[in-house]
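Dear colleagues,

As part of the handover before I leave the project, I'm documenting each prediction I ran so the next person doesn't have to rerun anything. This entry is a single chain, and its sequence is reproduced below.
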Amino acid sequence: MKISIFIIAFLIFAGLSIPCAAQPFDTSIKTDRDLNAIYGLWQTADRDGVIELLPCNNRICGSFFWVEEDGDEDIPRDSKNPDPDKRDHPLCGMQFMGGFTPNGHGQFESGWIYSPNHGQTFSASMNLIDENTLVLRGYFLIPLFGESQTWTRATNAQKCRVEPAPSAQPMNYNK
């Protein structure tokens, strides 16, 4: 008796799903809107960085546009990079995410993101909630093993400096 109820419920569910599945989605307009809406500057969840998302070879990538500096310290650098030769590279302007492809529903898949805090690269996806809200999910192996952040559209962000500002040196006119 339990098996027949299960079969009937399954057939009803399947029958209701077929008409929905048979109707194709028109993704072209939404995809164009999503692509235009995702480009630009985004404030990270902890507000210590602004990311610039832009097109890169038919995919979407991101670079640090602004990174919070630690007081009087030098500019932030990629100090935890597994490659010792790259540990002195400034984070400002560095591409640290890429490979994202739109699926036509406000979601961007098959991406990657490098975490300078961990010195590791993770798989990633993005979901454009609206024109001012973006959810980024970085994960290991499958999205279940990951973490999400909500980014907001950045306004009035100043580009970070790549090298420390030169100190004021008096001009030597006695040459």
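The CA atoms of residues 4 and 10 lie 10 Å apart. Confidence is low (pLDDT under 50) at residues 1-30, 164-175.

All the best with the project,
I.
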